[in-house]
């Protein structure tokens, strides 16, 4: 018996309601993680609206016939992802939008990899099948792990920042300070560690700009072999951090001409010896 031109066509049934529900739940996880990393206060209603938009967009792209998958991703899922972030996080700049999109797909990759990993290490899919509820539940486990890691990382990051209060002309001024463990700047005579403050803040600290408190501090940095910073000795400086508050006396603070942080998130750099 001879068989010619035998073709077998396999057909499956796609339940669009299940796909929509699963994608909406996963998008809830992804947008929550993205908003947390971006530092955005995204309300539950905005996250839900963004998730519904993402799930609906995915279903629409899935139903479009005769379009290669790569084109569906580039022409469909990327704009949809941007729209999701815009709705949920209300980002203001295009750069922040792209950053949010990167986080969104990064977490998508992590959750997908986590589910695949569990599939290879357990028999949960064999026992219960790859139902919407099982996948959503596994996604929630991955979401909880990612959220915990983000919280730990952000907590450690906050430990590198503190608030510094210095008596000023019209009362104490308070600035945000970065605790820089690589700051080895010292005053050459006393060998005391030196903090660095933006020149703009010195407009309210003229009471310390006296000849007897004046210091010259040599330094070197990347791209510049050597240089000199002007500084002054401050009688009292309060440092407040997550571990409490501490007061330092006779602190030498150098004047930096320019912005220490390009984003303006802090105005001072503290050596570890002057931290809390």
UniProtKB/TrEMBL annotation:
Q: Which UniProt keywords apply?
A: Aspartyl protease, Cell membrane, Hydrolase, Membrane, Protease, Sporulation, Transmembrane, Transmembrane helix
- What molecular function does GO assign, one term? aspartic-type endopeptidase activity
Gene Ontology terms: biological process: asexual sporulation; proteolysis; sporulation resulting in formation of a cellular spore
Q: What residue range is the signal peptide?
A: none
Q: What is its main location?
A: membrane
**TM ranges:** 12-35, 73-89, 101-120, 132-150
Q: Where in the cell is it found?
A: Cell membrane
Pfam families (alphabetical): Peptidase_U4
Q: Name one GO cellular component term.
A: plasma membrane
Q: Which residues form the active site?
A: 180
- What exactly does this protein do? Probable aspartic protease that is responsible for the proteolytic cleavage of the RNA polymerase sigma E factor (SigE/spoIIGB) to yield the active peptide in the mother cell during sporulation. Responds to a signal from the forespore that is triggered by the extracellular signal protein SpoIIR.
Q: What's the family?
A: Belongs to the peptidase U4 family.
- The molecule here is called Sporulation sigma-E factor-processing peptidase
């Amino acid at each position: 018996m001879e068989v010619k031109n035998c073709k077998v066509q396999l057909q499956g049934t796609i339940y669009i309601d299940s796909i929509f529900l699963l994608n909406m739940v996963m998008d809830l996880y992804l947008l929550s993680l993205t908003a947390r990393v971006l530092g955005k206060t995204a309300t539950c209603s905005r996250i839900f609206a963004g998730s519904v938009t993402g799930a609906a967009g995915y279903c629409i792209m899935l139903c479009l016939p005769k379009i290669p998958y790569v084109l569906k991703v580039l022409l469909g899922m990327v704009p949809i992802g941007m729209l999701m972030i815009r709705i949920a996080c209300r980002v203001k700049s295009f750069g922040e939008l792209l950053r949010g999109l990167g986080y969104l797909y990064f977490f998508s990759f992590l959750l997908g990899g986590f589910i695949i990993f569990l599939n290879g290490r357990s028999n949960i899919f064999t026992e219960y099948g790859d139902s919407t509820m099982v996948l959503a539940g596994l996604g929630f486990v991955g979401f909880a792990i990612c959220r915990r890691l983000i919280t730990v990382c952000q907590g450690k990051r906050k430990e590198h920042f503190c608030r510094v209060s210095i008596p000023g002309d019209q009362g104490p001024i308070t600035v945000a300070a970065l605790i820089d463990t690589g700051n080895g700047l010292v005053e050459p005579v006393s060998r005391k560690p030196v903090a660095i403050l933006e020149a703009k803040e010195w407009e309210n600290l003229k009471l310390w700009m006296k000849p007897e408190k004046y210091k010259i501090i040599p330094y070197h940095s990347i791209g510049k072999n050597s240089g000199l910073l002007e500084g002054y000795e401050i009688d009292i400086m309060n440092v407040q951090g997550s571990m409490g508050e501490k007061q330092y006396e006779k602190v030498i603070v150098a004047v930096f001409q320019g912005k220490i942080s390009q984003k303006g998130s802090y105005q001072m750099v503290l050596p570890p010896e002057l931290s809390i």
